[in-house]
Amino acid sequence: MSAAHGETVMLPGGGVRVEGALELVPVPGGVRPVRLPVRQWAHFPPAAEILRAVVSNASGVRLRVDTTATRLTLRVRCARIQIGDFLRPLNSFVAQVEGVTVATAEPPADQTLQISFAGDEATTVVHSDSSLVELAPLPAGRKTVTVFLPQSMNVDLLDIVGDAPVFPAEPTGRPLWIHHGSSISHCAEAELPTSVWPVVSSSIADLDLVNLGFGGQCMLDPFVADAIAATPADVISIKVGVNIVGARSMDQRTFVPALHGFLDRIREGHPHTPIVLCSSILWPGSDDTPGPSDVEFLDDGGIRCFTAGDPADIGKGALTLAESRRQVAHVVDVRRAAGEDIVYLDGLDLYGPADVPAHPLPDSLHPDAELYEEMGRRFAQSVFGEHGLVPRAVLLKGRSAGLAALQNHTPDEVAIASH
Questions:
Q1: CATH of domain 174-419
Q2: What positions does the domain SGNH hydrolase-type esterase occupy (predicted)?
Q3: Does domain 1-171 correspond to CATH entry 2.60.120.260?
Q4: Which member of 9, 294, 351, 368 has the lowest number of beta carbons within 10 Å of its beta carbon?
């Protein structure tokens, strides 16, 4: 079974099922969940330390255990990320039972991974070998506990101990959703990993999530498409635009062909899987200005992120966020006309001009936890709701049809089809 469906890890004090990662990398004393298979890392650009860090962050990664314990203690090794002079946020550990939060714990910072702003150098500063994280009190009786890991940190899992035996939980059997996006899908700014908007959406829609939201790194990289193609999924979503505009990495001529190529690679592994293609949310004040992006340091200690390109360059082919939405919608129209199972969600439906008064963006680019949670509710309703673009009932029906088709093959044919 793919790591995306969860892998069992036996630790000295008990067993866990790790979900939401695409690989478990051996580290001294344990394993580190990562969200992009290491075999893909050889295709990273030369200055890729930021990329390596964010794909190793634990956004959407969770542990599931069956136990009667009322206290769980994790031994972990957590690395906080520092890029240039910017320390990325600390996020909590959260324990849930039946979708209800029952305990939280602050994360340790056992290490600081210091990365140059250019991404060409990285140094690890060690503060401690490991730390204990206690989650208590938990409800009495036998239960399945889900522990969400801090989404903007690298977390090495070394051990788990309870005041009663701890066993790996069984797979949920729920439909699997793979989502790829930018920092606005990574959601590092939220204190709780359960405020990550794809996590919120997956909880509402009762789906198993693999969140490939990579801060600053949603660039239509072929190695990401290949990883998605190689991973079983019942539905796939891609939210694209803001990183490409912010880095000025593509223009009006190259964006659409690159997006088609990204989708073509995914289709090699998922010829019939529903795909939701989503454009970017509003970037107030920067929607109609091309990149590159820049940062202004404010007198109150805050920052403002904005696009700093020359509007005159639009006529020369520069891409704006507003234009990227039109082009993403165009790609969906072309592919739907060819019979593909693909739908478009306008990012302005998740956060648009009418939302600015009630939900101003703290740095003019990234939402806060309250808005991330609202975006998760909106996405769940617009996409997976009863009248959504890809209703959950349709996913269940498609899964049942696929299993029935497999049952009509010989065992050898099943092995080939499953592969």
A1: 3.40.50.1110
A2: 179-280
A3: yes
A4: 294
